[in-house]
From TrEMBL:
The lineage of its organism: Bacteria, Bacillati, Bacillota, Clostridia, Christensenellales. One of its GO terms (biological process) is lysine biosynthetic process via diaminopimelate, diaminopimelate-aminotransferase pathway. Pathway: Amino-acid biosynthesis; L-lysine biosynthesis via DAP pathway; LL-2,6-diaminopimelate from (S)-tetrahydrodipicolinate (aminotransferase route): step 1/1. Residues 36-379 form the Aminotransferase class I/classII large domain. It is an enzyme of class 2 (transferase). This is LL-diaminopimelate aminotransferase. Keywords: Aminotransferase, Pyridoxal phosphate, Transferase.
Length: 393
């Protein structure tokens, strides 16, 4: 037998476990010091009451013979796909309920979608970026090229027509930089993809954080995107589902390559390799998109938004350059006085007790930058930024 040799080319992902070790060692040697955890990209507020009530009700239904449900539709229950379609309509993107595929989260779909594409394709990935795009393609042995996200382009790289890419990743608002494309800027990517016959894999996991007008919530706000883009989204960051698991992927009917419908291929793939998301979870997800649910999840989002503003205000006062924060739970700052983000991590922890994520962990161009998240409680964020300001003011 032979193993998949491509796994040898994967970099060990020590980033988060390394950070956890350093933080644990620090708190052990400094038991009296306060630690401000602003590093992990995970939500902290609980599920909305409307979501909990819907899930409880669904579990009771599953416990009664008359209302019990076995296997559901692989693509997701129509009640949830309808809610998602309506949600898209609320910000001006038209998708058909049958173009929506419900899943256990965006990360799985981002990996699984690659089943549809030949390993011979060239993949274009921004640098720095969410590490999943790089690793899933390395596992398949695909050729990866990078487009540089830098301070000069505000961490929003634009297409270069001399670059020949077949699969293009875009994450907006971005993890880790928090930068978000306007509909206008996104149009250039859609035009590039259509011209080349490439496919855009658009990660909209943070769309609900967009608050400025003119910025894209969905790639389908751009005309022609349905002919070239697949969109991945999730209830994880929007509704606190990171531990509950529910996401969705939109594969438009109009997306065709080499005489094949990618929608038909994805349906075939899912019905073969996937058996759907738990009924109670889908009921919870639909409740998150109900009028009451939306009100409740927006109240949670505004807590994170307010935290991001506290971070940004402190950086503004210190005159430290950053992006993100306004339309994202992430603030991406230039390390003050450091060119090495890992050295800055150590210094910041030692000096202030603030834990963030070194930008170098997200790619070469992330070096010199640092990610702070607003997924914390306000007291932690205020304490962190007071300590930060005292150290760099
Ligand atoms: C958190 C996150 C997701 C969501 O992943 P789930 O599997 O749905 O929890 C997707 N993309 C990015 C960039 C993320 O940061």
């Amino acid at each position: 037998m032979k193993i998949n040799e491509n796994y040898r080319s994967l970099r060990d992902s020590y980033l988060f476990s390394d950070i956890a070790h350093k933080v644990a060692a620090f708190s052990e040697s400094h038991p009296d010091r306060r630690i401000y955890k602003m590093g992990i990209g995970d939500v902290t507020l609980p599920l909305a009451p409307a979501v909990v009530a819907a899930m409880e009700e669904a579990v009771r239904e599953q416990g009664e013979r008359a209302t019990f449900r076995g296997y559901g539709p692989e693509q997701g229950y129509p009640f949830l796909r309808e809610s998602i379609r309506e949600y898209y309509r609320s910000f001006g993107a038209a998708v058909d309920a049958d173009e929506i595929f419900v899943s256990d989260g965006a990360k799985s779909d981002l990996g699984n979608i690659l089943d549809l594409f030949d390993p011979d394709n060239t993949v274009l990935i921004p640098d720095p970026v969410y590490p999943v795009y790089v690793d899933t393609n390395k596992m398949a042995g695909r050729k990866i090229i990078y487009c540089a996200a830098t301070r000069e382009n505000a961490f929003l790289p634009m297409p270069d027509t001399s670059v020949k890419a077949d699969i293009i990743y875009i994450c907006s608002p971005d993890n880790p930089t928090g930068a978000a494309y306007s509909i206008e800027r996104l149009r250039a990517w859609v035009d590039y993809a259509r011209e080349r016959g490439a496919v855009i894999l658009y990660d909209a996991a943070y769309e609900s954080f967009v608050s400025e007008k003119g910025l894209a919530r969905s790639v389908y706000e751009v005309e022609g995107a349905k002919e070239c883009a697949i969109e991945f989204c999730s209830f994880s960051k929007t509704a606190g589902f990171t531990g509950t698991r529910c996401g969705y992927t939109v594969v438009p009917f109009a997306l065709k390559r080499c005489g094949m419908s990618l929608h038909a291929m994805w349906l075939r793939r899912q019905t073969t390799k996937f058996n759907g998301v738990a009924y109670a979870v889908q009921r919870g997800a639909a409740a998150a998109l109900s009028e009451e649910g939306l009100r409740q999840i927006r109240a949670n989002l505004s807590v994170y938004r307010n935290n991001a503003k506290i971070i940004c205000d402190a950086l503004d006062t210190l005159g430290i350059w950053y992006t993100g924060g306004r339309n994202s739970p992430y603030v991406w700052l230039q390390c003050p006085g450091f060119t090495n983000s890992f050295a800055f991590f150590d210094y910041l922890l030692e000096k202030t007790g603030v834990v963030g994520t070194p930008g170098g962990g997200f790619g070469r161009n992330g070096e010199g930058y640092f990610r702070l998240t607003s997924f914390a409680d306000e007291t932690t964020v205020r304490g962190a930024m007071a300590a930060f300001s005292a150290a760099f003011g």
